[in-house]
Amino acid sequence: MAIRKLKPVTPGQRFRAISTFEEITKTTPEKSLIEPIKKTGGRNNTGKMTMRYIGGGHKRYYRIIDFRRDKDNIPAIVKSIEYDPNRSARIALLVYKDGEKRYIIAPQDLKVGQTVMSGKNIAPEIGNTLYLSDIPLGTNIHNIELHPGQGGAIARSAGSFATLLSREGRYAILKMPSGETRKVLVNCRATIGMVSNPDHFLEMSGKAGRSRWLGRRPRTRGVAMNPVDHPMGGGEGKASGGHPRSRKGLYAKGKKTRRKKNPTSKFIVERRKK
Questions:
Q1: CA nearest 163: which of 186, 194, 185?
Q2: What is the pLDDT of residues 153-192, one digit of tens each?
Q3: Per-residue model confidence (pLDDT) at position 110
Q4: Residue 216 domain-assigned?
Q5: Which of these, 65, 151, 167, 232, could form a disulfide with 222 (CB 3.0-4.6 Å)?
Q6: Is residue 242 part of a domain?
Q7: How many independent structural domains does the chain possess?
Q8: Which pTM does this prediction carry?
Q9: Residue-range definition of the domain harbouring residue 35
């Protein structure tokens, strides 16, 4: 997985850097595992625009991903590594011994033809899903459950992983991708390895049109608006607009938004560094 920088043949390619897609082995998705996605354009059921800066975008199909990995003790062969337009990571098509097919988030270094499994008493190898009670300390993991049976909710984007630091009774201590240290029940599942496509953050679109392909319309800065439209609007020339805040006047960039009495705060051992 590498990044390819294009020659500046056109203005839009001057700064463009894209993935080489060298790990992709199949270009068409599995028909039984896709669903149509209906775009809203930011409009509600009456046609009123309720979300700005949404619209257009290339037509996509949603790939149904198995985040639970609850098909236990049945070996599955990795049939292909595929591109998914709905996420930054690559996905892998698994074919189980009983013939069932499922998509999973592909870990880094997962190869076609490799066998993966999930459940108890499974070897902690890349792509295998185990309970946190069975994973060796110091292992990098992804697709981590926060509640048993919920399905993976943490560390699912490209290049992300958490580290299993220790176990204390019913809880495992994890170092999250954000740097936060957190307790998670040991009967939650996680997948061994780091998520694929770690170079995703190095990609550069090179032109505004690529944002339109992704369904993002041009966004107007608050300081470029009039005072009637935004708290940061108005002023002579290029005024800074004071402390950054939202359209509704709520402080942004640094103000804590977490509830002080959030019941899950007791599971956070150490907050992330600023």
A1: 194
A2: 999 999 999 999 999 999 999 999 999 999 999 999 999 9
A3: 96
A4: no
A5: 232
A6: no
A7: 1
A8: 0.91
A9: 3-200
